[in-house]
Amino acid sequence: MLNKRKVLTLGFQHVLAMYAGAVIVPLIVGGALKLSDAQMAYLIAADLFTCGIATILQVLGTRYFGSRLPVILGCTFTAVGPIIAVASASNLATAYGAIIISGLFVVLAAPLYGKLIRFFPTIVTGSVVTIIGLSLIPVAMNNAAGGQGAPDFGQLHNLLLAFGTLVVILLVNRLAKGFLRSISVLVGLVAGTVAGYAMGIVHFTSVSQASWVSIAQPFYFGVPQISITAIFTMIIVNIVSMVESTGVYFAVGKATDQKVEPKQIVSGLRSEGLAIMLGGIFNAFPYTAFSQNVGLISLTKVKTRDVIFAAGGIMVVLGLLPKLAALTTVIPNAVLGGAMIVMFGSVAASGISILSEVDLRKESNLLIAACSIAVGLGSATLPQMFDQLPDFAKMLLQNGIVSGSLTAIALNLILSRSKDGQPSAAREAA
Questions:
Q1: C-alpha span between 202 and 377 (Å, rounded)
Q2: I need a surface site. Which of 54, 252, 380, 381 has the fewest CB within 10 A?
Q3: How far is 400 from 136, CA to CA, in rounded Å?
Q4: What is the mean predicted confidence (pLDDT) over 349-375?
Q5: What is the pTM of this model?
Q6: Alpha carbons 183 and 180: distance in angstroms, whole number
């Protein structure tokens, strides 16, 4: 049984694991729209605050909302381009109006989507979880080299920091026992940051400049405005996120040794829809289940929801106290990359473990796994191959998880049919 101090420490480890992914979206959007420093600070604080509230809603669960799985919600990167496009063509108030209504769409559409879960048999879920892990590996390697576009990208000190962080995590996980073993990633991040400070690449300027308190304000950027085009665009973004979240739910189920039921996915997606609406109200972002933290659950073997609840609470506090939030930004990208390698690799390994339950000697299963993983990984690593397609198709296909999932579902319907013509998904559902 974990005491409160251990739960908080493990929760903080989860926050660090997802922090870079959480703050990069407001940084990119704010930079592209040329927001002021004060507006950027608000955007980051509101994002963290809403991330925390959304995660708590997801974990606690009620009759209709929340999957009650140890899932962390974070802002979806799929929304970055559309938000910038809508805000550039009109204003942020229009973008947030579209986000609120698209969140309502997710709440209402979740039960209908739940009826489609029968098209996710083991061969499909295993392929999707594997794609999630593999598609994140390039993100980990980019960070390990110093971060895409960084002036010192690929320099020796970044590679040493990433490698050193990875080695520390592996040693602690291999040699330590009990609680220390469960916080191996946190130990690696701290050790890597200390090493980075000794190298002179860790600076605390952002901490000194950050304010002490920031309160999330509804409609900070103005009263929401309505645009049919913007609403349709954000609905498409959230349909993509629903597919992505489904894969994450299955991955979490594998990591926690439990069967994920369709009603849990429906409740989880309803909760995500509510979180998206909150994101629009507080002028943050659309939210989706974060795959970054699945690998951490697999690695630490800590499966309790209390830890994720604590992580949600910590994010709420960080959203209210920007100076504390800024402390987490001093971790070098290379250190984060070193930790991501083992976490994202664990997700891919979970997918492979699911696939091991399927008879891959059967040609149809082999083709489903092979083609869906290839398409998903290809889309994730070379998204520009779809640049000439219409925006709707481009938004779907440039997301490796979505393109891989659609490929797996389609091939399962086509290839895995019994003699009576029924697809394997229907047989498994029965």
A1: 33
A2: 381
A3: 10
A4: 89
A5: 0.72
A6: 5
What pLDDT, on the 0 to 100 scale, is given for residue 206?
65
Tell me the pLDDT tens digit for each residue of 155-202: 999 999 999 999 998 998 888 877 788 778 888 888 998 999 898 888
17, 22, 23, 24 alpha-carbon torsion, rounded to 10°: 100
Per-residue confidence (pLDDT) for residue 210, from 0 to 100: 66
- What share of the chain in percent tops pLDDT 90? 17
Query: How many of the other CB atoms lie within 10 Å of CB of 327?
Result: 15
Give me the helix-helix angle, 292-300 and 122-144, nearest 10°.
Answer: 100
User: How far is residue 355's CA from residue 265's CA, in Å, rounded to a whole number?
Assistant: 21
Q: How far apart are the first and last CA of the chain?
A: 39
User: Is residue 318 a contact partner of residue 48, using CB atoms and an 8 Å limit?
Assistant: yes
Instruction: Give residue 310's pLDDT.
Output: 92
Report the C-alpha gap between 266 and 204 in whole angstroms. 43
b/e code 213-223 from CB counts within 10 Å (16+ = b): ebebeeebbee
DSSP characters over 15-82: HHHHHHHHHHHHHHHHHHTT--HHHHHHHHHHHHHHHHHHHHHHHH--SSS---SS--EEE-GGGHHH
- Segments in 115-149 forming alpha helices (H): 122-144
Cβ-Cβ contacts under 8 Å for 170 (sequence gap 6 or more):
184, 342
Nearest to 30 by CA among 98, 102, 83: 83
Comparing C-alpha atoms, which of 412, 334, 366, 393 is closest to residue 142? Answer: 334
CB 282 within 8 A of CB 50: yes
Asked whether the beta carbons of 300 and 1 are under 8 A apart, the reply is: no
Q: Mind listing the pLDDT tens digit for each residue in 262-276? A: 889 999 999 999 999
More confident residue, 334 or 35: 334
- Kindly give, in sequence order, each residue whose CB lies less than 8 Å from that of residue 150, ignoring residues fewer than 6 positions away: 333
Q: Across 245-376, where does the E strand assignment appear?
A: 287-289
The helix/strand/coil state of 138 is: helix
Question: Tokens 């005491």 label which residue?
Answer: 3
Task: Show the tokens assigned to 386.
Answer: 């779809």
Q: How far is CA 32 from CA 149, 206, 232, in A?
A: 16, 20, 22
Can you read off the two tokens belonging to residue 243? 């597919």
Residues 44 and 54: their CA atoms lie apart, in Å, by 15
